[in-house]
## 1
Amino acid sequence: MKVEVVIWLIVFYFSFSACNFSNQKSKEPKTVWDTLEVTASAYNSLSWQTGAGGANITAWGDTLKTGLKAIAVSRDLIEKGLDHNTPVKIEGFDGVFLVKDKMHYRWKNKIDIYMDEDVEKARKFGRRKLKIYYEVPYSSISENKKSKNNSE
C-alpha cells in the first residue's frame, strides 16, 4: 500500500513539473506602442536655451551628445508613461528616440526634440502638432482600457 502511494505521488509530481504554466503568459506581449498627439518643438544643447551652466546635462542627469536621438517631455506626459528612457517614435522622423529630459512644469502635452547645436534646424522645425508612439508595459494599456470601458 505504501509503495503504491509513493509511486502515485512520484507520477503526480512529474506530470505537473513537465507542464510549463509560465509559457501561457509569454504569448502576451510585454510592451505595446501607445499613441498620443502632442505639440512638438525643437531644442539645442546651448546654455542660452537651457538656462543651465552645463547645457549638455538633462534634468535626469544624462549627457546630451551629438547624434543622440533624445526628447524632453512635459511633466504631465511622464504621468502618461513617457518616463526616463522610454522609447518614442515620432511622426515624420526615422528611428527611435529616448526620453532623456523633462521640461518646466508650465508646459503641457508637449515634447522638445533634441537637435544637437543646429539652431537653424531647430528654428526651421518650429512648432507643430504631431503624433508620437511610445512603448509602455502591456499591463498598463490593458488596465487603462478596462477602466475606460467600465466608466462608459
## 2
Amino acid sequence: MDLDALILQLLDRTPIADQGELLASLAAQGHDLTQSTLSRRLKRLGVQKLQGRYRRMEAPAGALPEVTLAVAPPNLLVLRTAPGFAQALALSLDAHPVAGLLGTLAGDDTVFVAVLPERLADVEAHLRRVLAAH
C-alpha cells in the first residue's frame, strides 16, 4: 500500500487528533516521516482538522474554484486558483497536454505553465477555452 493510501486509511479507521498520533501510527507501519513532510502530504491530500480530528475534505461535486490566467511573455502562463488546488490543476494540464505546452510547476495556489514562445497565444487560447468550459 502506498503512503498516501495508508494515511487516508488510518484517518478513516481511527479518530486522530494530532499529527504526532498519525506519525506514530505510520512509524508502526514502517513509515518514518518528519512532521513537516507529513504536514505537506496532508495538505496535498486535502486533509484538514475538523471537529478535533483529521479528515479528508472532499469538494462538492461540480464545485471547482475560480481560475485566473495571466500571460508572462515570452513563454509563461500563470494560473491562480484557490489554495490547495494548484497541484491538481497542474496534474490535469500535464495529463492532457496541448502542442507547445512544455510543462507545469505548481505551488499551493499558483501554476506556472512553460510554453514554447511561438505557441504562447495558441496555448493561452486553448487554456481559456478549457477553463471557460468548467
## 3
Amino acid sequence: MDTVLLSRLQFAVATYFHFLFVPLTLGLSILIAIMETLYLRRNDPQYLQMARFWGRIFLINFVVGVVTGITLEFQFGTNWAGYSKYVGDIFGSLLAIEATAAFFLESTFIAVWALGWNRLSAKAHALSIWLVAFASNLSALWILVANSWMQSPVGYVLRGGRAELSDFLEVVTQKYAWLTILHTLAAAYILTGFFVMAASAYHLLRRQNSGFFTKSFRMGLTMALIFSFFEIVEGHLHGADLAEKQPTKLAALEALWETQPRAPIYIVALPSPSNDGNIVEWGRIPSAMSLLAHHDPEKPVKGLLDFPKEDRPPVLITFLSFRLMVTLGIIFCILTLWGWARRNRLTESQLYLRVIIWAIPLPYLACALGWTVAEVGRQPWIVYGLMRTKDAVSPVATSQVGGTLVAFILLYTVLGILAFWLMARHIARGPEPAQAEV
C-alpha cells in the first residue's frame, strides 16, 4: 500500500468511528429538549425523568464524538497537507466558523445543562438544552457545508496556484450543500429514533417501567417515522442534483456504462469489479434513471464510458453501497409503519419489539454506507473536478501512516467497546425514580 491509500484508510477509520456517535448526539439533543418542554407544559415528572435518563446516553456520545472529531481535523495537517495548502482559505474558514459559532456555544451550554440539575429553574434548564440542540445541529451544518464544497466546489478563484474564496454566500447557499445537510440530519434522526425504540423495547419486553418506556418508544417512533419517509423524498431530489454536479457518481450508483435516453434502473444488478462495463442484471425498470436525473424519460443520462477511465470512481463499491443504503431506507419505512400501527399495543407486540432490538445496527450501517457513497463515489477527486486525491497527501513515509493507522484502529476499538458498554449498562439499569423539580 502507498501513502495515499493508507492516508485514505486512516481518515475513513476515523470518520466511520466518529459517525457512530455524532448522529445520536444530534437527535437525542432534540428529543431531550422536547421532553423538558413537555415537563414544563404538562407538569408530569416522568418527562423530567426521561430527560435525565436519555441525557446520560447523550453525554457519553457527546464526549466520544468530541474526542474523535478533533483527531479528524488534525489529519488535514498531518496527512493531507497538500489539500490544506491548496484550499485552506476556503475549507479552513468553514471549520473555523463551526468551532467559534457552534461548538463553543454547544460545549458551554452542555456544561450548564449537565451541572444545572437542581441549580437552575426548570425554564432555564430547558432553555439550556434547546441551545445545546441548536448548536449541535448548527455545528453539523457547517461541517456538511465544508464537505459539500469538496463535492461541488463553487465560489472560488484560482490565484497563485491555490483556490481562494471569492463568494462566501454562494458556498453556503448552494443547493448541493442544503440537500446534503437535510439528508445527513434526517439520517441522524432516524438513527436516534431507532436507538430510543430499541432501548425502550428491551424494557417493554421485560415489562419494566412500562409507562416510562412506552412514552419513550412513541417519541422515538414518531421521529423515525417522519424522517424515514422524508429521507426517501429528499434522496430523490439529491439524485437529480447529482446529474448536474457529479455525473460520474450518478452513473456509478446505477452502473450505467453507456449514455442513453430512457436510461433504466435495475432492481438487482452486479457490475464487474474490473470496471469493464459488464453487468449482471435483473428487474429492469425502463426510463427510471432518466426520470430520476432529469424528470424526463427521453433525456439521456451520461454513462461511465463517456468519461476518461482515470476519472471514474470505483463502481462496484459505490454501486453496492448505494443499493444496500436504499434497501435499508425502505426497511426503515416498513418498520416504522408497523410500529405506528402497534403504538397503542406495544406491550402486546412481542414480535415487533424483538425485531426492533435486532434492527438497531441497521441505521448505523445505513449512515456508514451513506458516507461510503459520498466519498468513494467522488474519487479520484478530493475536490471534485479541481484537485485529485493523490495530489493532496502529505509527503510522509508510508511506514509512518501505517503505524498511526494501526494505532487508530486499536485505540478506537477500545474506546468504542467502552462507550457502548457504558451505554448498554445504563440502559439495562433503567431510569432513576422520578423527581418533581430540576
## 4
Amino acid sequence: MALRPLRPCRHPGCPVLTREGWCPKHRPQHKRRISAEWHGWYLLPIWTDRLRPDQLLREPFCRECAKSGTRTYATVVDHVRPFRGDWTLFTDPGNLQSLCETCHNRKTALEQAQDRRESDKSKP
C-alpha cells in the first residue's frame, strides 16, 4: 500500500513535512463537549422507529420556514423544549417539531450560546 506524500504542515509558515496535514505542534485541538449519556437515546427504537418518523409524517414541512411563508421539507425532528435527560420530555410527541437542517442548526446554536452565557454568569 502506497503512503501519502509528505507535504508541509497546513499552518502558515510551518516548514515541517507531514502526511496527516498538520504537524503535532499545529494540529487543531477540537473542543468538543463530551456527549451526555442520554445522547444515545436517539439510537433507541422508540426514537428511530416511532417518534421521529411519526413526527415527519404528521408535519412534513419545516415549522420555522412556514412562519415566513416558505415550504421547505423538514429533515430533522427537534425538541421544542430541550429535554436535558428528562425521559418524559424526550418521548412527549407534543414537545416535537419538524425543522429543516438550516433552521435546526440556527436554533441549536442559539440555545448553546444562551447556555454558555448562563454558565458564565454562574461562575464566580
